[in-house]
Amino acid sequence: MIIVFGSLNMDFSISLERLPVAGETVLSSDYVLSSGGKGGNQALAASRFGGKVAMIGRVGNDNYGKLVREYLKSQGVMVSGVAYSDDLPTGCAMVAKDKTGENQIIVMSGANVEVSNEQVPDEILIKQNMLLMQMELPVEETVTLLERAKEHGLITVLNLAPAIMIPRKAMGHIDYLIVNSIEARQIAEKLHLAVGNNALKLAQALAIEGQMTCLITLGSKGSVAVTKDGEAWGVPIMPLDQSEVVDISGAGDAFCGTFAAAIHEGKTLPEAMRLASIAGSLTCLKVGTQAAMPFLDDILARLDDMPQAEKLTL
Predict the structure, then answer these.
(1) Pairing state of beta strands 53-60 and 78-85?
(2) Which of 86, 253, 298, 305 is the catalytic position?
(3) Closest CA to 95 of 288, 251, 284
(4) Can you give the residue range of the structural domain that contains 262?
(5) What's this model's pTM, rounded to 2 decimal places?
(6) pLDDT, tens digit (0-9, with 9 covering 90-100), for 90-125
(7) The domain spanning residue 156 has which CATH number?
């Protein structure tokens, strides 16, 4: 089972001709409400890949909270670990997208700030399970659960997004760290790792620092990964007709959720990266985040279109 300890939001997706600059007001003719939050998104991606997924989080005792919880349940995600807050509303995110698919996102945490690591009972922290986390919940709760998970022998996957710094010792509790290129540079700077902007060197430095496998996603350039033993891989994105790309907002979460599910299933690192890359690419062809997450059959159908992983030299 994959335990996802993460945020749950209601997303307001707003379509614009172009994104506003600071101090500017722009008008939109419509918006769409949909379930979101990096935790919920990645849980659904993992579930659609075929994983057995338990979501741990918190929503407000309001209509948005009920909708978010029930949607995940309807999609096969176990939600008994999603609690209701009596004091705070369900978290919300404002996602503004322009006609090219670029986006700006503002997140209001709401009930997510009340999530506790104690919502995860020791009974499910067994080595056959995996823990998947992000950084939209309180840092201290995330770090404590990481420590508990490693004590019990679980494989841990952390998508360090947003790039909020965690204690150095917590890096040693992570088996797979997933960051984008911007987040990787921010983390390297905070750790005083002088590696410049070379993604492969960034991944290597972070892998050595945390004695883990570090993956860096590079948008249209694919992704790279370096293991703690110095093995390096590169995977491009699945080729897409750019005229078909409508929304890139769910690509990162699709990558993370699919990667975690593939690793939990027993796939090798390069195999999991390829599958995750396909998932991320397919998400860009649909509007929204959770609604755009591909199913396993969709991913497998495009395997022949996906270039092979390349072993890289450090």
Answers:
(1) parallel
(2) 253
(3) 288
(4) 2-312
(5) 0.92
(6) 999 888 888 886 778 888 999 999 999 999 999 999
(7) 3.40.1190.20
